[in-house]
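[Automated response] Your request has been received and processed.

Submitted sequence:
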Amino acid sequence: MTSIQHVRVEGTSYHRGCQYGRQAAARVRLSVQAYQQTFAHYAGLDWPAVRREALRFEAPIGEFRPAYLDELRGIADGAGLDLADVLAINVRTEVMYSAKARQAPGTPTRLPAECSAFAAVPAPGQQGLAIIGQNWDWLLHSAQTLVVLEVRQDDGPDFVTVVEAGLLAKTGMNAAGLGLVTNALVTDADVGEPGLPYHALLRAVLDCATVTEALEALQAGPRSSSANYLVAHASGSALDIEAAPGDFTRLYPLFPEGGVLLHTNHFLAPGTGLAPDIAPVDLALWAMPSSIVRLQRLRAAKTASTARTLDDFRILLTDHADHPHSICAHPDPADHPCEQTATIASVLMDLTGKHVWLAAGNPCQAPYERLDIAL
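Generated structure:
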């Protein structure tokens, strides 16, 4: 059973980090302990080696947003850990996925598939809610490290994010009316070269007031890993941005069709993965094969109904087609214990009314509850 701690912070970057680390100390420490085993399994690295890898990202983060590095130091100090420990869990994507990308297809371990995501916005001049959400699927240990982090800051919009304890950000919404959901992606270019890491960029998007600003943040420097950033705004703007490692030339936008954007864990933009001399090769069919069927189910629901209500998406996120590798994901008993995954949390956000509903665990079992937040 997933349990969630609500953490509220304010003040300067370092002080916010200290409050975060102090309030969630037990969960941050548990996250560090759990990822020691995870990195050993997926990357073959012991913790001292992981810490060395993580410290390679200190300079890129500091050059991109010095305040984020201050916040990470604060999290470490608040939780009684070293900066390298907290950096390590914040670059877990870069370490794990780069190790997998360097392996040959057919090797026994699969990457954890994470997330089925959507956004729905009204057409210009039409009434309706701007809605965004996702099922976040990940390794089972993260059910015990989940937090709702509510941040009040002087240097950007206040925001709330549903995230693993100790990480800068994940799925969330801010006071400017911008919402963010996300999917892991992996290509042959994910080799772990230091750059802007995934979770720092998620945080950067939540610091933006508009979708255009979010796109600018994602092209502010060379990215270290592939990821999908689905961004929508209360005003009705929405954009899905597929990103491969590299600069602005490795960003691939997707636009709403009928006011809806849908995404899982593989590239959808035309041409990606088809010309290795031009674009990175998508490895998702090998590394995260459930992505294809989950996208098919999302699209089937869109085709079958023109309704775009919160209840429609609640039903969609409980879908069990292709169980256990379904939109509402459950552990596969055939998997190695270190590779078993499930839907850890299901998040629905009404950007128009600035409300967030959260199901702590599989939405087929856990009820959605509206979070007590004030943005």
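Summary generated for your ticket: The longest helix spans residues 25-43. The CA atoms of residues 359 and 368 lie 4 Å apart.
If you did not submit this request, please reply to this message.
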